[in-house]
Input
Amino acid sequence: MRRAAFIALLALGGCSFDLSRTGADGPHGDRMPGESLRRDQPVDQSLADRPIHPVLDQARAEDKPKLEGLKPPDGKPKADAPKADLPKGVDLAKADLKKPDQTTPKKDLLKPDQLKPIPDLPKADLLKPDLVSAPCAYGASPYLTGNPSVVLCQLPNPYGWCSAANHCGSSWHVCNVDEYQTFLGGLPLGSDLEDAWLQGLVRSGGPVVQLNTSPCPGCGGGSVASAVVGLIGCSGGGAVVQTTYPFVGVKTATTCNRVGGTSVQGYWLPADCIAPLSRILCCR
Output
């Protein structure tokens, strides 16, 4: 029985045992007492599954093929799959993998290198007369004269000097006789510019004076001795213009005439300060 077990052990270890080279009593003829061995005696296969010795069991376990480190059939080690770089602090267990971040990064508009200096824009001067008010006021209608600095204002009603002077815009004023000569060049005027008030004075309560740029001093009633305040035409004797009213101003005319004590020539005529006129000339 001991010999049979030993033979089975050798068979499990991969060793072969040839009985043809031994005698019936074994290779040395030292058959154990009471035992016999024949070639055709079958080996008990149940002995292979029976634990024989702890050391042998451990050796048998170590002979099993190891899967670790095995190479694929092509002989090359299998490369690890690339791993995606995740931002720091991202938890894969909590990350929403179904909705990738599709937001477009926004530029930081506060970065100095992205800021461009804004050029200073020209500012409108709101104090300029042409941006503040119209040249005419209180219902008067403006008409061009050919010079942007001079506008004829058609009054809503005929007025004496004292009321007519209020119908120029806030940034405008009644043209005085010097401005009238400068801006319109002392040339003949059309009939549409005739009989418009100018700021000038040839008589102030008494004798006739030389033409000057003063406004009429008053528009009240009264009368004084008659006096010649102008001459019609600029050559020859001409007809005289005389009045008993104490305050005499100047108005525009389509012909050249002489006004005042020294008979200053120009396209104008003397006018009592209370005379109702329908036009006024405004300058700026």
About this structure: Strands lie at 141-144, 150-159, 173-174, 196-204, 208-212, 227-231, 240-243, 247-259, 264-272, 277-283.
